[in-house]
Amino acid sequence: MAEYKTIGTATGARASEIDAGLRAHMNKVYGTMSVGMLITALAAWAISGLAVTTVPNGYMIGTDKYLTDLGVTLYTTGLRYVIMFAPLAFVFGLSAMINRMSAATAQLVFYAFAAVMGLSLSSIFLIYTSSSIAQVFLITSIAFAGLSLYGYTTKKDLSGWGTFLMMGVIGLIVAMVVNIFLQSPAMMFAISAIGVLIFAGLTAYDTQKIKTTYLQMAHSGDTEWLGKAAIMGALSLYLDFINMFVMMLMLFGNRE
């Protein structure tokens, strides 16, 4: 692998410098990702709180809850499709324009994306119990930590996983679109189970890729580029975590 060649040619003080730089880089990746997760959680919780009331207003959900005017607008009109696909637009936009942005701007765009993702995920607070969401989040966090640690420490080259996993993601998207029309519980269960496996693999793969990329570029001394690389790495791991969490919630979550 490229990183071992890089380390092998660096000795003494240079090797220590690269190692320290890698730790700082990974800390920035995980730190940026964590802030994004917090923004998403707060946005989802805040929006869901504004979307539901116990005062009857004509649109009942569950046994004793009603959508507010905001909730009706968000979840029962065409705006729900805008909210659904807005995060995807952010991802493509950030990926396409990252080279023309400063690292600071890219970080702000990432945080804006995290807020929009929170808006998109706010409906889970209406569908699943709070305890169920908390339990699945904890399970996902433990699994994510273990998988990311594996990707960081393993000596096995995971680069060959990339094409296979991305084909799996494309297949998942197609299957989910088809199931919008079929509404098959069995198909949704299969999508969720396969999705957990795919994003588990992507967590390990992306972690190793972030590490490899840093070690390949550490000699350049381009701090602006490395700052952008940290943000894109945070975005990759953030998406792995969110998707794994949602898939596990569909499998194990208790509905309201």
Number of helices, counting only DSSP H or I runs of 4 residues or more: 10
Care to count the β-strands? 3
Task: Strand order, main sheet: write it out.
Answer: 1-3-2
Low-confidence runs: 1-9
Brief characterization of the structure:
By secondary structure, the protein is mostly helical. It has helices at 2-8, 12-51, 69-76, 79-97, 103-121, 124-127, 130-153, 161-182, 185-217, 223-252; strands spanning 52-53, 60-61, 65-67.
If you had to describe this structure to a student in words, what would you say it looks like?
Helix 4 packs antiparallel against helix 5 (103-121) and helix 5 packs parallel to helix 10 (223-252). The radius of gyration is 20 Å and the shape is globular. Helices cover 80% and strands 3% of the residues. Mean pLDDT is 89; it is low at 1-9. The chain is mainly alpha-helical and 256 residues long. Strand 2 and strand 3 form a beta hairpin. It contains 10 helices and 3 strands, in the order ααβββαααααααα. It has one domain.
What's the SSE blueprint?
Layout: H1 2-8, H2 12-51, E1 52-53, E2 60-61, E3 65-67, H3 69-76, H4 79-97, H5 103-121, H6 124-127, H7 130-153, H8 161-182, H9 185-217, H10 223-252
Antiparallel strand pairs: 1-3, 2-3
Keywords for this structure?
256 residues, globular, 3% strand, 3 strands, disordered N terminus
